[in-house]
Amino acid sequence: MPVLVPLGVLVLSSCAGRQTTPAASQTPQPARPEASEVWSPVPRVITPGATNDAPPTDALVLFDGTNLDQWVSVKDGSPAGWKVADGVVTVVKPAGDIATRRSFTNYQLHIEWRIPSAITGSGQARGNSGVFLASVGNGANGYELQVLDSYGNTTYVNGQAGSMYKQYPPLVNANRKPGEWQTYDVIWTAPTFHADGTLATPAYVTAIHNGVLVQNHVALNGFTLYIGKPFYKQHGPSPILLQAHGDPSEPISYRNIWLREL
Questions:
Q1: Pick from 9, 28, 65, 126: most CB atoms within 10 A?
Q2: Percent of the chain predicted with pLDDT > 90
Q3: Would you say residue 9 has pLDDT above 50?
Q4: What is the mean pLDDT of residues 197-218?
Q5: How far apart are the C-alpha atoms of 197 and 219, rounded to whole Å?
Q6: Domains of the chain listed by start with CATH number
Q7: SS3 sequence, 88-100?
C-alpha cells in the first residue's frame, strides 16, 4: 500500500534542501594581484655607504675624524674642547660634556666608541661615558644610552653598556674587550606632548650594539635619572650629548659619527 506523507512535511523538506544550496551570488570571486600593488609615491633614491658603517648620501656627518665643528661645549656653547687626533676624538674630562650644534627630533644614529686597552677601575668607574639621545635643559636631563666597559666588569645591569640608563638593561651583553672599537646603531623616536605640556606619546629606542639587538623599541618612562623616578618634561627638538663622566679611569674615544633624520 503506498505511504501517504502530509503536504506540510514535503514543503519543509523542500525548503531545507534549498537552504543548503549556496546561491550563485555568494561564490567568492578570484582577486587580481594588481588590487594590492602600490606604485606611488616612489621612494627617493640614496646611495648607501661602501660598508654598513659608512654614512649614506643622505646622512649628516657629525664627526669624520678631522674636527669638532658640529659640536660645542655644554658648559658655555664655546667650541668643543675634546682632543682630535688620528681620526679619533678622545674625551677631555675637565672640558666637560659636548653636544651637537644642531637639534633633532627623530633619527637614525651611528656612533663608534673605544674603551682604552689600559683601562683601570671597576663598576661605574671604569670607562664611563654616555650618548644622550636627546639632551634637555642644562644637559643633565635627557635620555642616556650608557657607554661603559662591560667586558668582564660587574655593575648594576641597568647601568652597563647597552642599557637605557636606570630603565632598561640590554637584552644581552655584546661588549668587545678594551682596545677594540664598538658600534651603536640607534633608532630614536622623540616623545610628543599635548598643548598643555602633558605627555602624548613616550620616547622609543631601538639600539644595536656591535650588530646585536640590545634594545627592542622600548618605551622610556622619562628622563634617565641617576637618582629618583623618571619623569617627562615638555621639550622639542634637542641636541645629542656625549658625556665626559667624572670617574677617574682613563678617557674613552669616539669616531665615525653620523645621523639620518627621519
A1: 126
A2: 86
A3: no
A4: 98
A5: 19
A6: 60-261 (2.60.120.560)
A7: EEECCHHHCCEEE
Phi-psi region of 81 (alpha: psi -120 to 50; beta: other; left: phi over 0): alpha
CB 256 within 8 A of CB 63: yes
Residue 3 has pLDDT above 90, yes or no: no
Residue 85: C-alpha distances to residues 14, 119, 137, 152, 254 (Å): 94, 19, 31, 29, 11
Instruction: Name the grid cell of 118.
Output: 689600559
CA–CA separation, 186 and 145 (whole Å)? 9
Stretch (H or E) spanning 201: strand 199-201
Contact 49, 56 (CB under 8 A): yes
- Kindly tell me the sign of the dihedral angle through the C-alpha atoms of 112, 117, 118, 123: positive
Please give the radius of gyration of the chain, using alpha carbons only, rounded to the nearest integer: 29
Residue with cell 669616531: 255
Kind plus residue range of the DSSP H or E element containing 119: none
Cα 123 to Cα 167, 209, 222, distances in angstroms:
18, 20, 25
147 contacts: CB under 8 Å, gap ≥ 6: 113, 127, 128, 129, 130, 131, 161, 243, 252
Position of cell 644637559?
139
Q: Please tell me the distance from the alpha carbon of residue 258 to that of residue 262, in angstroms, as a whole number.
A: 13
